[in-house]
Amino acid sequence: MTAQTATAMQPVKTSAVAKPTETQDLFERMQQTYGSIAQRAFEIFDNNGRWFGSDLSDWLQAESEILHPVHLEIAETDDALTVQAEVPGFTAKELDIRVEANRLTISGKHESKEEGKKGKTIYSERCAKEILRSVYLPYDVDSSKVEATLKDGVLKIDLPKAPHAKSIHIEPKAAS
């Protein structure tokens, strides 16, 4: 492995052990995200002079500023599922991957801050990107053997199927 390849690939932390509070954590994360979008939508409404009638466009603008889509591709082999997710701009430390028996949740938060001084005026800008994607998997997976890597903005997650979930081919016998 070359040094360039080694620095481009980052192992991603995974919480592979299913916990009884996973669903509650996901629900709380969704509530926090909803609250962030609602707050930003109100800021847009307020900045536009509090004119009524554009609440949907304010909401959609706020949603597009806060949440960024996570495009997924799920592939299947006899023994495993492979998920590839586009997460440009995120580092391995900013991502959180949760795996339950038949559900995968990818979340992350990335904040950047820029400041510029011009005379006595201070200019400050913040950009927060959040992702949250939860999908049900077509098979139960062995969460103790999940591996994830991040390379060039693409998160690759290998999810081995649980032993009872593997598909097998059965040849029917001719009746005598």
Structure, described:
This protein has 176 residues and is α+β, with helices and mostly antiparallel strands. It has one domain (9-163): Immunoglobulin-like. Helices cover 25% and strands 38% of the residues. The protein contains 3 helices and 9 strands. The protein has a 5-stranded antiparallel β-sheet with strand order 1-8-9-4-3. A 4-stranded mixed β-sheet has the order 2-5-6-7, with helices on one face. The radius of gyration is 22 Å and the shape is elongated. The model is unreliable at 1-10 and 13-21 (pLDDT under 50).
Descriptive key words:
Immunoglobulin-like, about 180 residues, alpha+beta
Summarize the structure in short:
The protein is α+β, with helices and mostly antiparallel strands and 176 residues long. Helices cover 25% and strands 38% of the residues. The protein is elongated.
| Sheet/helix structural class | alpha+beta
Supply the number of structural domains. Answer: 1
What is the top-level CATH class? Mainly Beta
Cross-sheet strand order for the largest sheet: 1-8-9-4-3
Q: Alpha-carbon distance between the termini?
A: 58 Å
Quick check: average pLDDT? 76
* Residue share in helix: 25-40%
Helix and strand topology:
Elements: H1 3-8, E1 9-11, E2 14-15, H2 22-47, H3 55-66, E3 72-76, E4 80-86, E5 95-99, E6 103-118, E7 121-136, E8 147-151, E9 154-160
Parallel strand pairs: 2-5
Antiparallel strand pairs: 1-8, 3-4, 4-9, 5-6, 6-7, 8-9
